[in-house]
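Researcher: Here's the sequence for the chain we discussed earlier.
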Amino acid sequence: MAAALPGFNAPAVGFEQPFAMLEACHERVQRTLALLQRLRGHVQAQGAADEPARQAARDVLRYFDIAAPLHHEDEELHVFPLLLAQGTPGVVALVRRLQHDHACMSADWAAARLPLLALAEGRQAVFTEADAAAFERFAGRYGQHIEGEESVAYPAAQALLPPADLAPMGQEMAARRGAPARPL
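Model: Thanks. This is the structure I predict for it:
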């Protein structure tokens, strides 16, 4: 099942293009949520006794346990403070909502990850209605969140950020992930 998800490797852009990297992370979020949806269909139709289902659950867990929190931290460190300080009132209101989303998505993920972990470890073979509701809540919030960031927050931040600040932003993002810094 995990192999059925194309493009699960690193984004083609690098940290020298931090806003392109942020958008590439959103693409990975969407692909991982699509994998979760396919996993749900598979479990409903066949149960989760097979290794592909357990591997798909591990892939979803890995992404939202490791990569997604780093992405949120990128925004909290490099995008939101700038917009809160210099954005229009409408942009500031959006950023406040996006910050609230981050807290809610963390709580949503805490609920959604439990059945995935149980499935990945072979302790659960089906998803309950409560599990499905947790998955829906998590995925739904992410969709609205990404739309606000890509349509308003990122363009507004790029308009305010001096071009010379892009390299340090990308270098900090790479360093926090332990990625080698490429010359910019």
